Amino acid sequence: MNVTNKPSGGAPLSNDALEAHWMPFSSNREFKASPRMVRKSEGMYLWNQNGDKLIDGSSGLFNVAAGHGRREIADAVHAQMLENDYTSPFQLGQSKSFEFADRLAQLLPDPFNHVFFVNSGSESIDTALKMVMAYHRARGQGQRLRFVSRERAYHGVNIGGVSLAGMVRNRETFPVVMPNIVMMRHTWDEAHLFERGQPEHGAELADDLLRMVQTYGGSTIGAVFVEPVAGSTGTLVPPKGYLERLRKICDDNGILLVFDEVITGFGRLGAPFASQKFGVQPDIMTMAKALTNGAIPMGAVAATDHVYETITGAAPENAIEFFHGYTYSGHPAACAAGIATLDIYEREGLFEKAAELSDYFLDAIWSLKDLPIVRDIRGIGLMAGVEVFPLEGKPGARGNELQKSLFWNGCHVKWTGDSAIVAPSFVAERGHVDEIVDALRRTLKDQ
Ligand code: PMP
């Protein structure tokens, strides 16, 4: 079968080409029988294989925060590739990675002055795990090899991240995971549906960590990993006081707190990072996605002065203290993209713009509450989960169908299970929000 898609005016895709690309997190057979292709993207919009325009309600995969097709980023990457396309990051430097790390340190909360570069969110999580191990070992506490995570968490797909992830389906084919991972309960509560922003109830769920301290001994636990707002399981906003309570239990027991800010970082919640939004400071932060506006793959792990100094200070002279890194850690083109991205965020005041649009956005999303198919809505900042009732005995099947229907109704929104994750880019105007919500309403009411 030939598809009518003509990327950039090229030839239609052949069947061989369709089969050649084994697509990630996709039902390959189903997709290839009826492909949904994007051949152009600009600002808030995508164009499909038929040339029809779609509004992007999820800013790609929550990463294209400054809108698609930013020329400043393309120009910066182009210039960098011509000047210095690659330098080994091991025991050798090129200025862009230092410059970008410095810019990030200025944006990050105060004690986060050290940035380790990776290539994705998944790599940032596995790197953070190793950082936790290196930290405790440097302090003579190498026995802290138990890690705490949470049900309904998504921490990427590398073995460390899958082990930590509380999404059972991501693990069922890959049961060989890290040992000694224990899960706290998630914070979604069926008794409190349609609560906007931080739920009033549920802070006591943080005491699950206390129970683990009592069960296993605090001195065996290395770190707690949490997404401040769980993203990929449909926007689960932390109850008021919950993150504060986790922080306190960590402090009392020498446990590190890791915030996975892969989605929440860079203005999504209306503050540069979730730690600022919620006023709780972790010890390590992971980030990716909007770090480069999605233009070039990149992730990063930020550490406080204390964590960095503990690890780097522990090694004897001339020894490598953190035996970890990637060929493409701090790639010059990715750093150039990242610097250009931060320039755009600052110049256009996009984090402030996201904060200003939030009330309008959440009002519009909450207007979907009257549709009988809608089971719950959750949201904060420019991020909302719209959950529909599942089809009997087939969790996720309805969400899958709705994602496809929405695409043909002129809107891209990422569904996860039976929840739509609506997260427009920060260049969105009110009219764009209306367009996204109208498409959702038209699609959901037909069900
Ligand atoms: N952590 C979180 C919170 C994420 O949302 C994601 C991606 N959705 C990841 C980690 C993994 O990022 P990546 O897909 O870039 O590996």
From TrEMBL:
<dbReference type="InterPro" id="IPR015424">
    <property type="entry name" value="PyrdxlP-dep_Trfase"/>
</dbReference>
<dbReference type="GO" id="GO:0008483">
    <property type="term" value="F:transaminase activity"/>
</dbReference>
<keyword id="KW-0663">Pyridoxal phosphate</keyword>
<dbReference type="Pfam" id="PF00202">
    <property type="entry name" value="Aminotran_3"/>
</dbReference>
<dbReference type="InterPro" id="IPR015421">
    <property type="entry name" value="PyrdxlP-dep_Trfase_major"/>
</dbReference>
<dbReference type="InterPro" id="IPR005814">
    <property type="entry name" value="Aminotrans_3"/>
</dbReference>
<dbReference type="InterPro" id="IPR049704">
    <property type="entry name" value="Aminotrans_3_PPA_site"/>
</dbReference>
<protein>
    <submittedName>
        <fullName>Beta-alanine--pyruvate transaminase</fullName>
    </submittedName>
</protein>
<dbReference type="GO" id="GO:0030170">
    <property type="term" value="F:pyridoxal phosphate binding"/>
</dbReference>
<comment type="similarity">
    <text>Belongs to the class-III pyridoxal-phosphate-dependent aminotransferase family.</text>
</comment>
<dbReference type="InterPro" id="IPR015422">
    <property type="entry name" value="PyrdxlP-dep_Trfase_small"/>
</dbReference>
<keyword id="KW-0670">Pyruvate</keyword>
<keyword id="KW-0808">Transferase</keyword>
<keyword id="KW-0032">Aminotransferase</keyword>
